[in-house]
């Protein structure tokens, strides 16, 4: 089974073109102004129109208002809304997304006890992303280039709709896949030359590294 790849925090047509040409499965747009990767609804709508039909469009939100989320749904028409803040299960239920729009929820991880949140969120989300906990003084919940102990995820069912995030890049993603056992990855800062500045070359290298790991896994299984 091919690993699903999400390139998140896309802001420019060049970065989007590189992700699509290299075969990304999902492209993510960030709607959180403190992030250097943030885009406006109008900018995201234009980029989403380019991506539609070639990759799934993911709208990343952090503790959004109902009005903002409604505007994103109406103008961007994402396939997925990824909740990346402190949204409670009750708040996620209240948003009542349109039929066909998936819910993804990011959970911050630093030790095994953090996985206890799965019981509350898994029934509400088509996919759970595991991201490293941000630094205590951080102004945003993700995109810090930090990783966590991937062995914590070894007992999870790889077909259970899980995605690995946090500190991934072309050099370490093969090991991350092998250690965690998951078959979906999300990258943002690991394909940048500076915060918010995506590199087409690094995007291509990341996707090639994942596909290479897939090929080796398939060969070993055959």
UniProtKB/TrEMBL annotation:
<dbReference type="GO" id="GO:0004640">
    <property type="term" value="F:phosphoribosylanthranilate isomerase activity"/>
</dbReference>
<dbReference type="InterPro" id="IPR013785">
    <property type="entry name" value="Aldolase_TIM"/>
</dbReference>
<dbReference type="InterPro" id="IPR011060">
    <property type="entry name" value="RibuloseP-bd_barrel"/>
</dbReference>
<comment type="similarity">
    <text>Belongs to the TrpF family.</text>
</comment>
<dbReference type="InterPro" id="IPR001240">
    <property type="entry name" value="PRAI_dom"/>
</dbReference>
<feature type="domain" description="N-(5'phosphoribosyl) anthranilate isomerase (PRAI)">
    <location>
        <begin position="5"/>
        <end position="209"/>
    </location>
</feature>
<keyword id="KW-0057">Aromatic amino acid biosynthesis</keyword>
<keyword id="KW-0028">Amino-acid biosynthesis</keyword>
<keyword id="KW-0822">Tryptophan biosynthesis</keyword>
<dbReference type="Pfam" id="PF00697">
    <property type="entry name" value="PRAI"/>
</dbReference>
<keyword id="KW-0413">Isomerase</keyword>
<protein>
    <recommendedName>
        <fullName>N-(5'-phosphoribosyl)anthranilate isomerase</fullName>
        <ecNumber>5.3.1.24</ecNumber>
    </recommendedName>
</protein>
<comment type="pathway">
    <text>Amino-acid biosynthesis; L-tryptophan biosynthesis; L-tryptophan from chorismate: step 3/5.</text>
</comment>
<dbReference type="InterPro" id="IPR044643">
    <property type="entry name" value="TrpF_fam"/>
</dbReference>
